[in-house]
Amino acid sequence: MLAFQPIEADNVSEFSRYFQCQKFRTCDYTLAGIFMWRKFFYSEYAVNRDKLFFKVRYVNGKTAFTLPTGCGSTEDALETLEHYARRNKMHLAFCAVPEEGLAILKNRYGDAVAYTQNRDSFDYLYIAEDMRSFAGRRFSGQRNHVNKFQKLYPDFRYVTMNKDNIGRVIEFFDRYAPEHVKDNPIAREETLRAKEILTHFVRFGLLGGFLEVDGQIIAFSIGEIVGDTLFVHIEKALKEYQGSYQMMVKQFALHEVTENVRYINREDDAGDPGLRKSKLSYHPVRLLEKYFVTVEDSAWQ
């Protein structure tokens, strides 16, 4: 029996072990990703037979589930969801379903599956080595920005975030956010929850680093590794320092990519034209599509 409960700082850390058992490279199956957007999507979770379940209120206002994740049986987990939906007189719907997950649902429910996708939610997946090196003609623009930054600020430092300096990053963000947040609900939510992630950075075991010029923080990134992918959840920089964003991307990859990491997921663009242009300019190897899936009642009731 599923007993959904709210996601809080006290319980979110237990999710990590379930994420390590799945192969999806979308940001919806990461600790910080789930925590940051839990209020926006009214997310709740449940655990049953070594599977982790999430129930959310999706952007279309419908209650939906994400595909169960963990080392247990996916077929058994879907049967458990069917039972829950019957008991609660719900329709069966799934959100943020990656392409591999869509295949699982099609295999189980066949022609009873209907699905849509939203380009604004696609994740940008990059080759990790590309972000570390910016090698080749494709990345000449990024290299130019990095070279400009190095010329202007030759004494810059990359500093790994830890319990001793996280307070400095929070102070930087408190000054940064009021002047840079965009006037839309998603941007305001991201700013609010980014502060929470900073507050719980050590507790959640996240990765992070910042750029320092003349003793002052001018950029930072926070992420986590799941499987073979480094996820970049937060990336902020002062644009008045020319090349700061490009240098932050490169330095974060240089210092935080481990030998087992092949990809970097820099998440979606939320439909922001400027952000879309920027993320495309780094030449993703793939856009990770996500689907909203509904299943006809007759296929499972």
From TrEMBL:
What InterPro entries does the record tag this protein with?
A: Acyl_CoA_acyltransferase (IPR016181), LPG_synthase_C (IPR024320), UCP018688 (IPR016732)
List, for all copies, the residue spans of the domain called Phosphatidylglycerol lysyltransferase C-terminal. 25-293
**SUPFAM superfamilies listed in its UniProt record:** Acyl-CoA N-acyltransferases (Nat)
**Pfam families recorded:** LPG_synthase_C
Protein's name according to its UniProt entry: Phosphatidylglycerol lysyltransferase C-terminal domain-containing protein
Per the UniProt record, the source organism is Caproiciproducens galactitolivorans
Source organism lineage?
Bacteria, Bacillati, Bacillota, Clostridia, Eubacteriales
